[in-house]
């Protein structure tokens, strides 16, 4: 269970001197159709902040489903109200938690002749995992563009939270997002501004991190929170290789500017727990750390909003 330790003013209360924040609507189930006909099931936690809403996409590990992120997603959608009257109110986030193909409710596809095809994760090849990046995430983006253009979120402040397999999908797609060529008529790409990576692997069934980590925008322009259990030697080695690369491009800021400028965080508690098990454990406070990271690197930043006019 994820517990956020932020001080709150009490159930339903508002800190003195702060305007009441509109309550976000209940989460809804949505279906995202990929270009190859896969019906991705997702839960959308819509924000009450309109064009100022930070969107966060959550991607689970292999053999998991989007439900593992529900407590964190709800906390981001309806943040606690600060108890102090001088503390800034935290805005509601727009969260989309997705079942990647072959997982949870995303196990069927519509073939070209209209027949239904069942997806068996145990039979997935490298190209099926690659399709999570190339097709599943493009369906996610299409949904977010629609919400952006409806004035319900600001796609230019996008954050990705990935666990295990989902962490690899997140980083590789972030590089793809930053590699999109600019268009003269509308903004395209360069939307991912923050990555939360829980126990990523250097190579997960062909989803390799070598190329994304060589890509300058991923090295320097995206804030990163990396967390893993240090007692697993294989995962520790992979994560230390990632740290070695990213730390060169994210130097520690001066002591008096850490809160404003620090954009690379590493948490490696002494445990064998990994991924969402590390997240949902009460022992390490990873949920709170993610909450604070997204607030600092997305919520407090001024990313301009623009309509995308997606075709």
In this structure, how is the largest beta sheet organized? 8 strands, mixed
Looking at CATH, which topology would you report? Rossmann fold
Assess the beta-strand content as a share of residues.
15-25%
In the predicted model, the low-confidence regions spanning at least 5 consecutive residues are 6-17
Number of domains: 1
The named CATH superfamily: Alpha/Beta hydrolase fold, catalytic domain
How many helices? The count is 9
Chain-averaged pLDDT: 91
Structural class: alpha/beta
Task: Tell me the strand order in the biggest sheet.
Answer: 1-2-4-3-7-8-11-12
CATH architecture designation: 3-Layer(aba) Sandwich
Radius of gyration using CA atoms only: 19 Å
- DSSP summary, beta strand count: 12
Shape: globular
User: End-to-end distance, in Å?
Assistant: 41 Å
* Overall helicity: 25-40%
Order of helices and strands: EEEHEEEHEHEEEHHEHHEHH
Q: What's the CATH first level?
A: Alpha Beta
Give an account of the 3D structure.
With about 300 residues, the chain is α/β, with parallel strands linked by helices. It has one domain: Rossmann fold. It is about 30% helix and about 20% strand. It has nine helices and twelve strands. α2 crosses α3. The chain is globular and about 60 Å long. It starts with about 25 loop residues before the first strand and ends in a 12-residue tail after the last helix.
Give the SSE layout.
Layout lengths: L27 E6 L5 E7 L9 E5 L10 H8 L16 E5 L9 E3 L5 E3 L7 H24 L8 E6 L1 H15 L12 E7 L4 E2 L2 E2 L1 H5 L1 H5 L2 E5 L5 H14 L11 H4 L2 E4 L7 H6 L5 H14 L12
Parallel strand pairs: 3-4, 3-7, 7-8, 8-11, 11-12
Antiparallel strand pairs: 1-2, 2-4, 5-6, 9-10
Helix pairs in contact: 2-3
């Amino acid at each position: 269970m994820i517990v956020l330790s932020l001080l709150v003013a009490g159930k339903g209360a508002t800190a003195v001197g702060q305007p009441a924040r509109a309550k976000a609507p209940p989460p809804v189930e949505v279906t995202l159709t990929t270009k190859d006909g896969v019906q991705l099931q997702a839960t959308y936690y819509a924000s009450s902040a309109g064009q100022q809403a930070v969107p966060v996409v959550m991607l689970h590990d292999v053999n998991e489903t989007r439900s593992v992120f529900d407590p964190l997603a709800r906390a981001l959608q309806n943040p606690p109200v600060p108890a102090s009257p001088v503390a800034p109110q935290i805005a509601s986030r727009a969260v989309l938690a997705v079942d990647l193909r072959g997982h949870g409710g995303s196990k069927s596809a519509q073939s070209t002749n209209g027949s239904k095809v069942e997806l068996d994760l145990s039979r997935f090849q490298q190209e099926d995992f690659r399709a999570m990046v190339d097709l599943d995430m493009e369906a996610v983006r299409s949904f977010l563009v629609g919400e952006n253009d409806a004035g319900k979120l600001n796609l230019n402040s996008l954050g990705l939270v990935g666990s295990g397999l989902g962490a690899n999908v997140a980083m590789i797609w972030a590089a793809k997002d930053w590699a999109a060529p600019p268009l003269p008529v509308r903004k395209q790409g360069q939307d991912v501004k923050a990555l939360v990576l829980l126990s990523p692997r250097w190579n997960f069934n062909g989803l390799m991190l070598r190329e994304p980590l060589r890509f300058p925008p991923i090295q320097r322009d995206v804030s990163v929170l990396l967390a893993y259990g240090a007692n697993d030697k294989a995962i520790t080695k992979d994560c230390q290789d990632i740290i070695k690369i990213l730390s060169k491009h994210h130097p520690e800021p001066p002591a008096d500017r850490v809160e404003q400028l620090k954009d690379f965080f590493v948490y490696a508690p002494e445990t064998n727990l990994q991924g969402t098990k590390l997240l949902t454990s009460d022992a390490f406070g990873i949920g709170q750390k993610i909450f604070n990271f997204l607030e600092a690197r997305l919520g407090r930043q001024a990313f301009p909003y623009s309509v995308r006019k997606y075709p």
